[in-house]
């Protein structure tokens, strides 16, 4: 097998392993080793495999992405809570905490003139539980590229909202909360399809 | 979509049926499937199915030496796999006849009215 053919197969296998990373580890290993054996057997049947032969064989085997898609149908998630519910709860709590903070702040002026900071505890508790749920749902996204993209976007949107809270002037009042709410709604609308399949 | 659903239901029993005469190795099994049926989307997905069938205990694997030298993984039907296949065969015959009956009936009904 020429050097380039070998590196094409190697590259394919590493992309496949990456794509299968959402499966239980022993299943992923099992599938990868069978596919690798299949490729080797198919190649050994051709006397002097050219690069095009290798590409044809890999095309027949299917793209790592398509195998990963089939894998989630073959090995459906056994989780009790659906990814859809988990992501919804995570976002509502986290974004709700940020929105609540932006809208209501955390101090209240009591009638006797003293100030109460009790709401801070509520926002922090909501954000802590919410971001934990978001972390859990992100771990369950099987396609590695989507997982990384969504994890980064979740962080970016949250940080973005906090920056907005700091930058927008307080005198616009409730509008500030509405802007934050709009940002979160738009983000959820753009990404919710990720959670529908599982 | 329809094809994908029918595939998922029937393919695993086709694999079991192909192993009924005796063990086969992966490439051989996959080539028979892709040559004779439109059941597989791509060759790689067959190995997902084989992994699952092995977890289910319907298929077991064994290594055998090949004429080319390198040892090959052979897939063999287990007792449980053979029982599952027999069960499917009975269900399938009834299913096929039922659907065929309705499809054929729908044509003759249309010609009467």
3D architecture notes:
The complex is a heterodimer of chains A (198) and B (113). Chain A is mainly alpha-helical and 198 residues long. Chain A has helices spanning 3-19, 25-44, 51-61, 64-74, 83-104, 118-139, 144-167, 174-191, and strands at residues 108-109, 115-116. In chain A, helix 1 (3-19) runs parallel beside helix 3, helix 5 (83-104) packs antiparallel against helix 6 and helix 5 (83-104) runs parallel beside helix 7 (144-167). With 113 residues, chain B is α+β, with helices and mostly antiparallel strands. The radius of gyration of chain B is 18 Å and the shape is elongated. Chain B is built from 4 helices and 3 strands; from the N terminus they run αβααββα. Chain B starts with a helix and ends with a helix. In chain B, strands 1-3-2 form a 3-stranded antiparallel beta sheet. The A-B interface holds A 16, 27, 30-31, 34-35, 37-38, 40-42, 44-45, 60-63, 66-67, 70-71, 73-75 and B 4, 8, 25-27, 30, 34, 41-45, 47-52, 54-55, 68, 70, 72-73.
């Amino acid at each position: 097998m020429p050097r380039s053919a070998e590196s094409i197969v190697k590259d394919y296998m590493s992309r496949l392993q990456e794509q299968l990373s959402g499966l239980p580890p022993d299943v992923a290993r099992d599938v990868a080793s069978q596919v690798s054996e299949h490729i080797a057997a198919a190649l050994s049947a051709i006397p002097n495999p050219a690069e095009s032969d290798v590409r044809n064989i890999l095309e027949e085997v299917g793209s790592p992405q398509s195998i990963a898609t089939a894998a989630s149908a073959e090995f459906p998630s056994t989780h009790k809570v659906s990814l859809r519910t988990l992501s919804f709860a995570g976002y509502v709590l986290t974004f709700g905490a940020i929105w609540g903070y932006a809208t209501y702040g955390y101090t209240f002026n009591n009638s006797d003139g003293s100030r109460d900071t009790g709401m801070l505890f509520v926002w922090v508790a909501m954000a802590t539980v919410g971001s934990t749920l978001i972390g859990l749902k992100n771990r369950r996204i099987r396609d590695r590229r989507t997982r990384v993209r969504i994890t980064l976007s979740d962080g970016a949107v949250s940080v973005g909202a906090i920056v907005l809270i700091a930058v927008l002037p307080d005198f616009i009042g409730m509008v500030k909360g509405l802007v934050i709410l709009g940002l979160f709604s738009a983000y959820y609308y753009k990404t919710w399809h990720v959670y529908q399949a599982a | 979509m329809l094809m994908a659903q029918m595939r998922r239901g029937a393919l695993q029993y086709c694999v079991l049926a192909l192993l009924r005469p005796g063990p086969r190795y992966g490439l051989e099994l996959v080539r028979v499937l892709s040559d004779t049926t439109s059941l597989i989307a791509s060759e790689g997905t067959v190995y997902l199915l084989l992994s699952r069938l092995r977890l289910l205990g319907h298929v077991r694997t064994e290594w055998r030496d090949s004429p080319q030298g390198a040892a090959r993984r052979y897939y063999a039907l287990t007792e449980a796999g053979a029982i599952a296949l027999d069960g499917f065969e009975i269900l399938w015959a009834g299913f096929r006849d039922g659907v065929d009956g309705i499809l054929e009936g729908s044509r003759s009904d249309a010609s009467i009215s």
